[in-house]
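Severity: low
Component: inverse-folding endpoint
Summary: output formatting inconsistent between runs
Steps to reproduce: submit the following structure tokens with default settings.
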């Protein structure tokens, strides 16, 4: 979770802007890019383990649900 290994990109989804985090990781002389949902899960896990929020801004997309739901609408 070192900041020098982290990059972020601004994206847009349904008119809402959010940040996607990307982490460079190297193991056994192989380089990996950790991003998206995987990066989000690792950020959250590190926050729990270290009992503090990340040192960088998190900006997640806002998921929108229908404003009007009638009795015939099902969520699956």
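Observed output (run 2 of 3):
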């Amino acid at each position: 979770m070192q900041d020098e290994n982290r990059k972020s990109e601004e994206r847009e989804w349904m008119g809402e802007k959010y940040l996607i985090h990307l982490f460079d990781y190297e193991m056994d002389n192989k380089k990996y890019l950790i991003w998206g949902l995987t990066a989000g899960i690792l950020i959250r896990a590190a926050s729990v383990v270290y009992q503090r929020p990340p040192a960088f801004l998190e900006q997640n997309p806002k998921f929108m649900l229908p404003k009007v739901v009638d009795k015939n609408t099902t969520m699956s």
